[in-house]
């Protein structure tokens, strides 16, 4: 029967690589560190989300919202940043790029919705029926 690992027990495996550096005494400490990082990542994603929404104001059409050249630059940029990280396992840049591809696709989908909620500057606002009580 499979069960989740105990979080306060000592390690039951070790890496064969003698240069591997342990980061935590137990799984609880690992998870605490991951949770701390997740809080910071979500805070930063919220900041990114606000900027994505504001970027909508500068785009004239749906093609500009999707901005394929900008997407390619972002993916290349984060891959390069991931490659600069010391002591991270092989394949880390692939994980970062895949993560950003998913992230950017979701943000673009939402920005397309934001775009529908905007109007070009200099155009009058559409008339609204007002209900008076």
The CATH top-level class label of one domain: Mainly Alpha
Instruction: Give the % helix.
Output: 55-70%
Q: Assign the CATH superfamily of one domain.
A: Chorismate mutase
What does the overall shape look like? Answer: elongated
Instruction: Enumerate the spans where pLDDT stays under 50 for 5 or more consecutive residues.
Output: none
Total of helices:
4
Question: Mind describing the biggest β-sheet?
Answer: none
Number of strands: 0
Write the CATH fold name of one domain: Chorismate Mutase Domain, subunit A
The string of secondary-structure elements, in order, is HHHH
Notes on the protein architecture:
- The protein has a domain at 27-116: Chorismate Mutase Domain, subunit A (Up-down Bundle), CATH 1.20.59.
- Helix content is 56%, strand content 0%.
- The chain contains four helices and no strands.
- It is elongated.
- The mean pLDDT is 93.
Structure summary:
This protein has 133 residues and is mainly alpha-helical. The chain has helices at 27-55, 62-66, 68-83, 92-116.
Question: Main traits of this protein?
Answer:
4 helices, mainly alpha, 133 residues, single chain, Chorismate Mutase Domain, subunit A
Strand and helix map with partners:
Elements: H1 27-55, H2 62-66, H3 68-83, H4 92-116
């Amino acid at each position: 029967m499979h069960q989740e690992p105990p979080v306060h027990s000592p390690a039951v495996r070790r890496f064969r690589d003698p240069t591997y550096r342990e980061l935590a005494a137990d799984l609880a400490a690992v998870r605490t560190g991951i949770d701390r990082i997740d809080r910071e990542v979500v805070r930063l994603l919220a900041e990114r989300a606000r900027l994505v929404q504001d970027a909508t104001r500068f785009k004239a059409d749906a093609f500009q919202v999707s901005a394929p050249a900008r997407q390619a630059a972002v993916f290349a940029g984060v891959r390069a940043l991931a490659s600069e990280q010391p002591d991270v396992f092989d394949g880390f840049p692939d994980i970062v790029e895949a993560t950003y591809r998913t992230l950017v696709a979701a943000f673009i989908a939402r920005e397309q919705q934001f775009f529908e909620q905007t109007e070009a500057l200099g155009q009058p606002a559409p008339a609204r029926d007002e209900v008076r009580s």
